[in-house]
Amino acid sequence: MNILKARFSRILLMLPMLAIVFGLSACSPIEPWVKPYERDHLADPIMFLDPNPISSAYIYHVYEAREGARGGEGTAGGGCGCN
Description:
The chain is mainly α. The chain has helices at residues 2-25, 39-42, 53-67.
């Protein structure tokens, strides 16, 4: 029983030390993976989730106007579409 107690107390002493070591290791400087000259490849329109943003904005506006009477999307206005 004494051996288990000694091991348990040793583990309890190691846990705060491990937490400190892991906490300090997170303070290293983080460098960006994507360089500024590579960002134009990520801004390619093919990367967007919405293939037609203009028509989606129009459909969303119509949806807001219809659902405004019952408070669908949180915008003010009536169902007439004049918001």
